[in-house]
Specification:
Number of strands: 8
Order of helices and strands: HHHHHHHHEEEEHEEHEEHH
Shape: elongated
Low-confidence stretches: none
Number of domains: 3
Strand content: 15-25%
Strand order of the largest sheet: 4-3-2-1-5
Length: 359
Amino acid sequence: MTETLIQFSQTWPAWLWNMALMLFSFLIGILIKLICVPLLRRQAIEQSSYSLFRSFIQRFNRLLSIFIPLLVFNSLLPLAHFNKDTLQVVTKINELLLVSFFALALIQAIKVFEDYLYHRFDVNKENNLRERKIRTQIVFIRKVVVTMIIVVALAIILLSFDSMQKIGAGLLTGVGVGGIIIGFAAQKSLANLLAGFQIAFTQPIRMDDVLVVEGEWGKVEEINLTYVVVNIWDKRRLVLPITYFIEKPFQNWTRTTAEILGTVFIYTDFTIPVQQLREKLTVLLNGHPLWDGKVNVLQVTDLREQTMEIRCLMSCRNSGQAFDLRCYIREQMIAYIRANFPEALSKTRVDYTVAMVNA
């Protein structure tokens, strides 16, 4: 078959045969993609909400449009009619493209594996502490591995040129005066990178953790190699260097569990019947779906000159539900006091008896 093609190619002009060969490679690659991708997509639709086929198609769909024709052309390259110099240039370009696309294929394969792990460790369930731990490590490891793949691919490309071999070798080994200078110049970036490793495995913070940092309440949205993005409750984003979480104190409300105690403070007159308020709090909590049924406490926590401080303490599954439940209890308790004990609302007293005696 190969000998027949070689004999047939000799009857064509070299430039025309080469153009036809490249066009044929492109068409064959597109044909293979048009046949394979719909079959995989059909199988993906038949699967559940997550499937390996669907993830593969989403990650590799665009890459295969160029990768398959390139592989076909590489296999047909011996049939091309190029002179020696042109053949060397075409072969070199083909090699560089293959290295680049193999690096991209590895990166996409890592993302496919990441999709599987995300499906395996779903953070949307109620008690997701273990899943958030693993996802934090997955994200950081993926970014480090992708960075290493890019550096190695770039070094391989540089090593393929005689004049660039020293640069490529230096890029791989990380030695030399240039590396030392860059290291000194990038001390903060390297410190952030090392802090990222420390956070990924000691995990003072994790993905989706609830934090109070710089006076702001929010959730950890991204943990990158050098910085962390906190999604604040009002949709603002607080971007902090990753070393911040190693060097400075902050509050982590979901460090060991998402459960949290919510408090409501009420200030009333001394005459209010505390036991009736305690019973009312129990009624309100028992009828509310956000209460987890564990903590239900009402206590007088302070006495001041004119008011009595009453604290309502309740437990919730997470901080978001605690905020909503606190607002609900605060509104209902005030409404109950106004309706049943309006005279017990905080007030200022004036003793006219003492004033008349003095007069």
